[in-house]
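Hi support team,

I've been running sequence recovery on a batch of backbones for a student project. Most finish fine, but this one hangs at about 90% for roughly twenty minutes before it completes. I'm not sure whether the input is malformed or the queue is just slow. I've pasted the structure tokens below so you can try to reproduce it. Let me know if you need the job ID as well.

Thanks,
M.K.
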């Protein structure tokens, strides 16, 4: 069985960048860089099969003139001759992901096509399409293994729980029981980074001379911010890895000097992170770390931030979201805006470069922009991000605002485009969001 796993390209839509004043353009995110950890994990669970990864984001990063999608995908299909093609999906990459599966089916209808990932988990109904044979929800490495095994034995899929599969042209949910699977513990598989080695030099962020990789210490989130997709993806559950498993992984990635934790929130358990720091020190592991840490956690545990800084924490991404209590309450952030200033001092006192991210609601008026700008100027951080509050399908916020969504084109659902009516004229709104990106201390871009 030959399996081809494809990471779709990024959506090209970025209206903030398009309309931002020229002097701000340099600082606005053009692309986020990192390996497809989900697909690498899937490949880890299929160690005894012939797996190839087509990292199309990295293909376009390494060669902006790389052939267009159809040609690139066909090149892989000719080279790999796969029996199964799997694609990973988030909302903004849905259109291209489906285009890929259409190309696969046109090339050879016998190839089994499988869709998985966050968007397939939250919105499986979007995938009831001719080009999709199987839809996998959740942390589906084990389920995918069952699919591969069934296909290799020419068996049907009715005994595999947790999937939706096509039978006689119709998609139907399997009625088989879902086998227990804990992707962070007993079913953790080391990601197959060897399969993406050819693109390692595309995983360089900012001015760093070294490539970076993603590692997760936990899956899910215990908070329930209304706009976030992560806790719905994990049905409010949080799964944490074992410390020794993380240490083993850190010791196995000599090629990567920069480690970006992919957790929704790296400090979900203070004792756990405290012990992890001790073990990193004991083992003499020297890396530069990037983590997502909540501002209320940083303010509450300054000593832990100090300890993390000592083991190599250099950059923290912190969702400030808003400077207004009433907005944080509306987003169900479970933290008070008052604390943001304290958190900034804790990070700065430890020389941690802070990226504070604000979300800008589409109904912001001139006065709201002025108030945010005044606050952000008063509380400058090294890097700051200003994205648009967006109703990602499958979130609480999506259900709240569904009637006022005016653009359902999923390729715009990446926080850089407004899919709802803005109060200000649209271009002026984007220009104002773009201008905000000038408010920060640092001069480089991450
Ligand atoms: C790593 C990551 C990335 C990486 C790699 C993604 C990739 N495919 O290339 C990079 C850096 C490229 C990236 C980019 C973006 N990302 Co991102 N990213 C993440 C992050 C931090 C971790 C995801 C992860 O690795 N989880 C761990 C792995 C093991 O789990 P997994 O991916 O879910 O995979 C498992 C299952 O889903 C399943 N599975 C996955 N794929 C498949 C495929 C098949 C066939 C099968 C069977 C199963 C399967 O099995 C896997 C193993 O168990 C999440 C936030 C989070 N903490 O979850 C955001 C997140 C997924 N990203 C998000 C977004 C929006 C983006 C961007 C579009 C924009 C942005 N501002 O972040 C950009 C891309 C555009 C751009 N301009 O660059 C959103 C998605 C929201 C949504 N509803 O669509 C998230 C949830 C962040 C958030 N807070 O909202 N991202």
């Amino acid at each position: 069985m030959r399996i081809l796993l494809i990471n779709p390209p990024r959506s090209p839509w970025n209206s903030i960048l398009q309309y931002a004043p020229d002097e701000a353009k340099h600082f606005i995110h053009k692309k986020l860089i990192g390996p497809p950890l989900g697909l690498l994990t899937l490949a880890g669970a299929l160690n005894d099969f012939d797996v190839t990864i087509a990292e199309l984001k990295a293909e376009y990063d390494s060669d902006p003139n790389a052939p267009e999608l159809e040609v690139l995908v066909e090149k892989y299909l000719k080279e790999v001759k796969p029996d199964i093609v799997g694609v990973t999906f988030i909302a903004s990459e849905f259109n291209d992901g489906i285009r890929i599966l259409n190309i696969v089916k046109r090339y050879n209808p016998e190839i089994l096509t499988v869709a998985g990932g966050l968007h397939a988990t939250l919105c499986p109904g979007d995938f009831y399409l001719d080009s999709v044979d199987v839809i996998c929800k959740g942390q589906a490495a084990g389920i995918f293994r069952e699919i591969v095994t069934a296909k290799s034995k020419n068996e049907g899929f009715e005994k595999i729980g947790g999937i939706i599969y096509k039978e006689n042209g119709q998609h139907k949910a399997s009625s088989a029981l879902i086998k227990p699977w804990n992707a962070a513990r007993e079913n953790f598989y080391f990601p197959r980074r060897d399969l993406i080695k050819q693109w390692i030099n595309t995983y360089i962020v900012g001015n760093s001379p070294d490539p970076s990789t993603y590692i997760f210490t936990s899956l899910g989130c215990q908070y329930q911010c209304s706009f976030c997709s992560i806790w719905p993806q994990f049905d409010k559950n949080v799964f944490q890895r074992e410390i020794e498993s993380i240490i083993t992984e850190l010791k196995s990635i000599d090629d990567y000097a920069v480690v970006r934790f992919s957790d929704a929130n790296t400090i979900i358990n203070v004792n756990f992170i405290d012990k992890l720091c001790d073990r990193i020190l004991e083992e003499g592991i020297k890396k530069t770390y990037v983590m997502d840490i909540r501002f209320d956690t940083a303010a509450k545990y300054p000593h832990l931030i100090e300890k993390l800084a000592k083991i190599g924490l250099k950059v923290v991404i912190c969702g400030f979201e808003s400077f207004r209590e009433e907005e944080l309450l509306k987003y169900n952030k479970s933290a008070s805006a008052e604390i943001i200033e304290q958190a900034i001092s804790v990070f700065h006192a430890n020389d941690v470069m802070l990226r504070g991210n604000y979300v800008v609601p589409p109904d912001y008026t001139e006065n709201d922009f002025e108030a945010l700008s005044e606050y952000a100027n008063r509380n400058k951080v090294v890097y700051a991000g200003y994205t648009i509050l967006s109703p990602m399908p499958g979130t609480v916020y999506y259900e709240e605002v569904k009637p006022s969504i005016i653009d359902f084109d999923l390729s715009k659902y990446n926080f850089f485009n407004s899919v709802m009516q803005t109060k200000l004229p649209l271009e002026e709104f984007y220009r104002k969001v773009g201008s905000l990106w000038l408010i920060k201390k640092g001069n480089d871009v991450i």
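--
Follow-up from support: It reproduced on our side and the slowdown came from queue contention, not your input. The domain at 204-436 is CATH 3.20.20.70 (TIM Barrel). No action needed from you.
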